[in-house]
């Protein structure tokens, strides 16, 4: 089968004047120039990428851009979360300005979540907002950061605490780029795929329980799972672009997850984002059962599926150990989704029945953490 | 006359969900707590200011906030344009995060344009957008940066090339704070006041020709001139919030002005922003006459008024001399209002009849500069 001959699946993100398309399919890096030039005629561009991704995909992308008449500089940052810093932000901003790009020109992010978040932030602040195109090359980036316009960097006070909302003009999710992902990274991205089922699509979660092996193997089910994920996120974002209400649902598993990332020092050898989210989702379902909101059977079912794909689900699974419950709670309280001192969690009434709870007493979280830290 | 007993003048900036009030009058620093608490109940805040302004106005502001139940930290930066840097941005962002302020809390800018642009940028990126309140203490900040939501910092590539559009929730323009401004700074701010007349309010310009002495002296005419300026800018911004068209009118005098600021190394001993704008406006009118768009009499009238208030109007007035015409043109071409290589200028058909010209040949600008560099 010649994948690249298949037409990509299109998901439209409806945000009024800021609406845009996500194309999902094989061979999109090689078609990027044509797709971008058709939508943004006459632009120049800067491609922001990291050294690892550049080695595989930068030349094909630049050739495709050149063939479509798009002059594009390349700005290559160091791979890894450390590039989401003020120092790298300033470097990339300077690189874009040195190219004398204008507001109508584009910053193109070629890479995973780090590159997307960083390049998106750059495009949102250079000349108070340039055009932005995303070419996500990790599963996590394709199903998460490609939808919603969240951009940002980290600080010593926490992750993603500095950034802007800045929507891309186009997202090209080339599924070929996933073939070379390490298994661990693909699995971590899959946690976010499962999340969309758990938020409000119980049928999608059931479909994943049945089809996850094909999604991992790279068949048409993979394109389908990515498209469903993008559609699910797009629906939530369209209802609440700037995270004033509903959008908080997307944080299912993230409040616990961010705390675990913080407690492990954002050390990717120990825990990457998706792994934290997987444990966080399992905990959110367990916590909801503990609060008599949902059946323990649902928590069991979530755990079973995450385990089946090879993801961790318990605090004791985090390698290297964790601090005590009090310290974990501190990480949670610093999390930016805290509103006026009350603890906000995404809880659930069952598979696909998540909701935002704004008034969870810290004491209940603390005792739940204590129970789960001692297996 | 007890100024502080007079009710402030209110100007509403109409931007749909982002609409806000500008209050203009005496004694507003002392009333800030009550005005803010009424509109944003229950918030905490960080006041960003510079060392000079802090010495005069920080304590009265904090007392007023405390009296209204608003807990407020103070973040004091060095005075001057150098604080519009990535380094200071990072410092202030860290300061705000250290206070654990949330999205619903406020950054309050107390100071002139530098503090407003910097603090506004901080409030636009911390947690992807906090609430923002401005207490502008210079004439320039009261009539210019308090309207329109432009925020930003400078880079080695130019001024204000990095920032976001982020509208304040409230602006408190306390005219008492202008009494201690150096005469030169007040005069420079006045250039922007005159600009609003020259853009599209010929009656306001005629009123200023008649009443400028009372505006400088601090009578009710001062409040009136500030209110008219805010109204004029608010009208333009309401038509074009993100500077896609009409808003470019506000750059009258600024393309030449920014080039002069660049050519003098942003050395405020030689030239401050408003002085550059004054020369720029005179040149824009002279250039328009040279292109047979407007009568030379109008250019004479603009020059005469700017000279009357003590502002410079010619390139030869810039102390320390200027580089050649080619180099000045380079500064213009780097200006961010350049669109796709064509030179964009605000030109005029007469007093209060400005328009945006997107297709001014560089050769005409060059020869005009050459003529004006050799007096």
UniProtKB/TrEMBL annotation, chains A, B:
Residues 189-338 form the 3-dehydroquinate synthase C-terminal domain. Binds 1 divalent metal cation per subunit. Can use either Co(2+) or Zn(2+). Pfam families: DHQ_synthase (PF01761), DHQS_C (PF24621). SUPFAM superfamilies: Dehydroquinate synthase-like. InterPro entries: Dehydroquinate_synthase, DHQ_synth_AroB, DHQ_synth_fam, DHQS/DOIS_N, DHQS_C. Its EC number is 4.2.3.4. One of its GO terms (molecular function) is nucleotide binding. Pathway: Metabolic intermediate biosynthesis; chorismate biosynthesis; chorismate from D-erythrose 4-phosphate and phosphoenolpyruvate: step 2/7. Residues 75-187 form the 3-dehydroquinate synthase N-terminal domain. Keywords: Amino-acid biosynthesis, Aromatic amino acid biosynthesis, Cobalt, Cytoplasm, Lyase, Metal-binding, NAD, Nucleotide-binding, Zinc. One of its GO terms (cellular component) is cytoplasm. One of its GO terms (biological process) is amino acid biosynthetic process. NAD(+) binds at residues 113-117, 137-138, 150, 159, 177-180. It is found in: Cytoplasm. Its cofactor is NAD(+); Zn(2+); Co(2+). Gene3D superfamilies: 3.40.50.1970, Dehydroquinate synthase-like - alpha domain. It comes from the Bacteria. Catalyzes the conversion of 3-deoxy-D-arabino-heptulosonate 7-phosphate (DAHP) to dehydroquinate (DHQ). Belongs to the sugar phosphate cyclases superfamily. Dehydroquinate synthase family. HAMAP family: DHQ_synthase. This is 3-dehydroquinate synthase. It comes from Nitratireductor indicus C115. The lineage of its organism: Bacteria, Pseudomonadati, Pseudomonadota, Alphaproteobacteria, Hyphomicrobiales.
């Amino acid at each position: 089968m010649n994948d690249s001959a298949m037409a990509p699946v299109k998901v439209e993100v409806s945000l009024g004047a800021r609406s845009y398309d996500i194309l999902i399919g094989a061979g999109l890096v090689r078609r990027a120039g044509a797709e971008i030039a058709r939508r943004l005629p006459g632009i120049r561009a800067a491609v922001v990428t990291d050294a690892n991704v550049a080695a595989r995909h930068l030349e094909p992308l630049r050739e495709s851009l050149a063939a479509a008449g798009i002059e594009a500089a390349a700005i290559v940052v160091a791979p890894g979360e450390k590039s989401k810093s003020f120092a790298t932000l300033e470097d990339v901003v300077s690189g874009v300005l040195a190219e004398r790009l204008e507001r109508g020109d584009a910053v193109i992010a070629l890479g995973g979540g780090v590159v997307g978040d960083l390049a998106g932030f750059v495009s949102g602040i250079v000349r108070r907002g340039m055009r932005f195109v995303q070419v996500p090359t990790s599963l996590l980036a394709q199903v998460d950061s490609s939808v919603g316009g969240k951009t940002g960097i980290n600080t010593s006070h926490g992750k993603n605490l500095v950034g802007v909302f800045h929507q891309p003009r186009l997202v090209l999710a080339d599924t070929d780029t996933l073939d070379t992902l390490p298994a661990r990274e693909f699995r971590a991205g899959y946690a976010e795929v499962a999340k969309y089922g758990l938020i409000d699509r119980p049928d999608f979660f059931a479909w994943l329980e049945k089809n996850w092996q094909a999604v991992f193997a790279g068949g048409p089910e993979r394109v389908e799972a990515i498209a469903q994920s993008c559609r699910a996120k797009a629906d939530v974002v369209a209802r609440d672009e700037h995270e004033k209400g509903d959008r908080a649902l997307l944080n299912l598993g993230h409040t616990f997850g961010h705390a675990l990332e913080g407690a492990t020092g954002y050390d990717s050898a120990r825990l990457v984002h998706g792994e934290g989210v997987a444990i966080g989702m399992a905990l959110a379902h367990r916590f909801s059962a503990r609060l008599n909101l949902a059946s323990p059977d649902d928590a069991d079912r979530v755990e079973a599926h995450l385990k089946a794909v090879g993801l961790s689900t318990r605090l004791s699974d985090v390698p290297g150990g964790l601090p005590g419950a009090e310290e974990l709670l501190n990480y949670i309280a610093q999390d930016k989704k805290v509103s006026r001192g009350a603890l906000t969690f995404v809880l659930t009434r069952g598979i696909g029945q998540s909701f935002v709870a704004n008034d969870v007493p810290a004491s209940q979280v603390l005792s739940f953490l204590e129970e789960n830290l001692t297996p």
